[in-house]
Every structure is written in structure tokens, then in C-alpha cells.
């Protein structure tokens, strides 16, 4: 496979560009690419640009070819609203959700979230998750990078307008995915933390117009539930 790299600035239409230090290090030192190897660059605005790697000493350049407008985005705009999970679970969730095609990730602080983040620690963690999303796009072939939103409280999220429907995973819900019709707009999928949503949180979700949805008779872990639901939604309404 040809290596793909996210270029953090708008790509010019043609010519040669110098790759940023971190990108150059990854290409030449980590992946051990050689002078003349083909690569693909994308800047997150859509489309991608085939290029040829040019190594000059410690510097790394890319000789740009004609831009390709290929897109690999799902026709279903999915937003994963994920309650904070402990350990490295959030890394896993963000990575796999981006691979599966979500358009955005909104981390929320829930009452039962084991992980507690605020201030500078929260900002640094979101920055890290955004880079996880970038890497997942490089691997999966996506040319538009989903945004990982700043961490917010559940009720703060619910107070925002939503141009579509909100679905809350609830093991007690009787509605199945196939019971719901295809939404006209985007789908926001709310996933609770390790201990699940509290009764007050579920009540707040219902008051905000969220529809409860189950995933069969089994109770899934937080790092499994969202990804399973995203895959199911992609199969029913997306591009699977």
C-alpha cells in the first residue's frame, strides 16, 4: 500500500513542498521510505494528491502530481457522543469510530465517568485524540478529518441545537434500530460510560428529544457499544 500522510496546511495545486519535521521523520525514519517512493498527501479539505518523495539530506520534500477528488465519506453523517471512558479506551474508541466513518466525536463528562478531565489536562487530551483521528484517516483512506470536540458536560451538549436525530443507547429500550426510519439529517449517537447513564441523565436525554435504542438482549461495554452501533447504522443507512 502507498503511504498516506495528512499535510497540516492547504496543499498547492502543483510543484514541490517541504514536509513538516514530524511528518518527514515519520516518513523517512519510522516508515523508512526512500527517495522516489510514491506517497499520497491530503489536507483534510477533501480529495488527495499523489506525490513522489524527495529526500535531500535531513530534509524531506514531496513532488506533487495532479490532485484526485476521490471521496470516501459516508452519505450518513454520524456524530459519536461518547461519555469519557478510562485508560486508553478513548483512544481505541476514537480510532475505530473514525475508521468506521463517523463525521465527528463529542466527548462528554458523565456522572459515572471514571475519567475526570478539566482545564489544561482536558485540552491536551482532546489534542491527543484529534491526532488519533488524523492517524486513523491516514490508515483508512479518508480525506476529511473528523473533529474531536472539546469535552463538555452531558447537559451542556443536550442544550445545543441538533440538525437531525439523537439516539441514546439504553439496554432497557424496546425500540430496535430497524424500528426507526432513516433520518433526514445527521445522527447523534449517545454512548454512556462504564457504569452507564444515570436515571437523571436518561431523563435529561428524553427531555431533550433523544430516542432510546437497544442493541439486542446483551449489555455491551462502553468501548464496544458505540462501535457496534456505528457499524450497524452504516449497514442500514450508510455505505456498508
From TrEMBL:
The catalytic activity, as recorded, is: uridine(1498) in 16S rRNA + S-adenosyl-L-methionine = N(3)-methyluridine(1498) in 16S rRNA + S-adenosyl-L-homocysteine + H(+)
Where does this polypeptide localize?
Answer: Cytoplasm
Task: Give start and end of each Ribosomal RNA small subunit methyltransferase E PUA-like domain.
Answer: 20-52
What Gene3D superfamilies has UniProt attached to this entry?
A: 3.40.1280.10, Hypothetical PUA domain-like, domain 1 (2.40.240.20)
Give the enzyme's EC designation: 2.1.1.193
Taxonomy, superkingdom: Bacteria
- Enzyme class, top EC level, equals transferase
Q: Which UniProt keywords apply?
A: Cytoplasm, Methyltransferase, rRNA processing, S-adenosyl-L-methionine, Transferase
Question: Which residues belong to any copy of the Ribosomal RNA small subunit methyltransferase E methyltransferase domain?
Answer: 73-234
Name assigned to this protein: Ribosomal RNA small subunit methyltransferase E
Q: What is the lineage of its organism?
A: Bacteria, Pseudomonadati, Pseudomonadota, Betaproteobacteria, Rhodocyclales
Amino acid at each position: 500500500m502507498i503511504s498516506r500522510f495528512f499535510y497540516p496546511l492547504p496543499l498547492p495545486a502543483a510543484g514541490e513542498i517541504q514536509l513538516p519535521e514530524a511528518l518527514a521523520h515519520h516518513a523517512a525514519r519510522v516508515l523508512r521510505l526512500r527517495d522516489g517512493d510514491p506517497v499520497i498527501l491530503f489536507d483534510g479539505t477533501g480529495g488527495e494528491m499523489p506525490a513522489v518523495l524527495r529526500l535531500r539530506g535531513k530534509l524531506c520534500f514531496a513532488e506533487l502530481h495532479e490532485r484526485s477528488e476521490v471521496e470516501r465519506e459516508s452519505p450518513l453523517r454520524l456524530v459519536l457522543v461518547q461519555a469519557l471512558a478510562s485508560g486508553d479506551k478513548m483512544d481505541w474508541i476514537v480510532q475505530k469510530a473514525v475508521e468506521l466513518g463517523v463525521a465527528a466525536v463529542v466527548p462528554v463528562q458523565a456522572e459515572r465517568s471514571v475519567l475526570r478531565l478539566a482545564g489544561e489536562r482536558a485540552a491536551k487530551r482532546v489534542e491527543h485524540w484529534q491526532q488519533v483521528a488524523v492517524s486513523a484517516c491516514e490508515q483508512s483512506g479518508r480525506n476529511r478529518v473528523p473533529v474531536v470536540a472539546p469535552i463538555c458536560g452531558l447537559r451542556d451538549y443536550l442544550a445545543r441545537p441538533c440538525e437531525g436525530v439523537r439516539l441514546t443507547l439504553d439496554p432497557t429500550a424496546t425500540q430496535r434500530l430497524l424500528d426507526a426510519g432513516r433520518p433526514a439529517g445527521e445522527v447523534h449517537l449517545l454512548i454512556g460510560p462504564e457504569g452507564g447513564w444515570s436515571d437523571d441523565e436518561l431523563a435529561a436525554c428524553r427531555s431533550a428529544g433523544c430516542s432510546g435504542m437497544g442493541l439486542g438482549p446483551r449489555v455491551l461495554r462502553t468501548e464496544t457499544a458505540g462501535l457496534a452501533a456505528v457499524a450497524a447504522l452504516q449497514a442500514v443507512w450508510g455505505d456498508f
